[in-house]
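User: Hey, quick favor. My workstation is busy. Could you predict this chain's structure for me?
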Amino acid sequence: ARQYAALTGATPLPPAFALGYHQCKWNYRSSDEVAEIDAGFDAADMPMDVVWLDIEHTDGKRYFTWHADLFADPVAMIDGVAAHARRMVTIVDPHIKRDDNYHVHASATAAGVYVRARDGATFDGSCWPGSSSWPDFTDEGVRRWWAELFAFDAYVGSTDRLFIWNDMNEPSVFSGPEVTMPKDVLHRGDVEHRDVHNLYAQLQHRATWEGLELRNASTRPFLLTRGFFRRLAAVRRRVDGRQCGRVGPSGRVDAHAAVARRRRHFVWRRRRRRLLWQPVGRPAHALVPDGRLPAVFRGHGHHDSRRKEPFLFDEPHRSAMRAALRERYALLPYWYTTFAQGEESGLPAMRAMFAAFPHDTALFAEEQQFMLGDALLVRPIVDEHCTEVRVQLPRAHAHAHADGHAHADALRWFDRRSGAEHGGGALVVFGVASIATPVPVLQLGGTIVAERRRARRTTDAMVGDPYTLVVAPDAEQRAVGELYADDGVSTARRDGAFVWRRFELQPVVEWRLALRSVPLKALRRDADAATAGAAWRAATIERVVVAGVDAAGVYAVTLRSVADPTPRALDFAQDSSASAPRLVIRQPDVRIDGDFEIVIELVR
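Assistant: No problem, here it is.
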């Protein structure tokens, strides 16, 4: 992955809302239906960040337009969603309807931007609008022409709360051989399509990305694409028996596809086979693995399928889905930090087991579980009839501590819910009793994960919320972790407007542990002054949870910080929600942007 990123460039940090829940269907058919979706999530007390519109929102599948009757006032519709701190996405495919009265086609024809057939005439193929032509994105001038279509005065009805989805960009040509563009179609310089086919989608979403940057240089773009440079098909494996062994697109392929990142763009490829899925048996389990697997957590459906927004389900499915959504949002600080790390390292957030643990040969064929960042191991439940799932725990660490030691002989794993400890190399069996059975998630000993546990409707509403640090010590009572935070939407981070902290748990003496926060990267002086009062920066740590430490064995907990160097005693207790020892330290209430030290004194 690092070599791939060195060649192509790493994925930039997406806006925070991109990591929340997205609701989509082919198609929500009116602005009234969009308002219904928006209100439905609020009424059900379920978080959601983005509502998507598929091809039917347009005027006859003419992209950059709106249906005059069903979406008569798109700005009012988008503003209505934005009033609840949400955003919208519309689809913009590369095929352009051949209609002389359609302003985009007229402009494309006049500018000569289309690819050409072998005889030199404009290529005419079939896609959703019928007779269509395709811009030649291999031409820099054509990409500039395309980018300018996203300007607010060109894409009438769009606002800075509207983002884009590029679909059908392999390119998909219904009338073409292999349902794509003929290989002898000509691009700039008479280059045949056969030589640039795998670049077409990449170049289209590059041009779209540049258009989003051009329309508003101070806001980070969000763009989803179906195609990119390297295509991987969804694979489903079937295993007989009671164990959950059947892992479809979300469980098997995504983890392996995520070993390498895509240059410059925050992308996720949707999969057509999931569109006709009808929720049966355990729909909550279908939602839960998707919530942890793809970076973009999006519910989508075919126009012939039933509506399946989470708030439409009866109990107990509704409560299970609400819990899954809230757990995803609780982990957003960790997701966000992992993406910030990936921008520098080239590593994806979701990692196949063989990539995370390359020295553990027993995991080379493991395709039913994956690592989320350095710290969390996730085993999805994707079979409605299963009664148990098995998790093979790695024997070797995924990373070394700051002291350079791998500590491979002292591996520990902690169940995120029960707090139970498991040793490296163990095969752990989790029973699946009902739809309420949570997906197994284990935290690697030696790591620290930042969370936000207050239930909110959107990522924007979480900006000033306090954090919880979940510490999983290794056998030597050491752990490390990071927290990255910024305003979540703007490009001010390029100028140093962010907080990036490193947390370290270390034994001071045999009976004393110290948890310290130190800057990983310091704020630039001008950014420090400009963001001093920002809510995201003034957020505090309200709780520290330490796995494997029994409160009965703790004598005292004290805090020192830059703001208050005088030691202050902190309340602590055993975590009542855990079946194994887990210490909870309450209300340190120290800001995330300052140094601090929490000292845990054990009973001697």
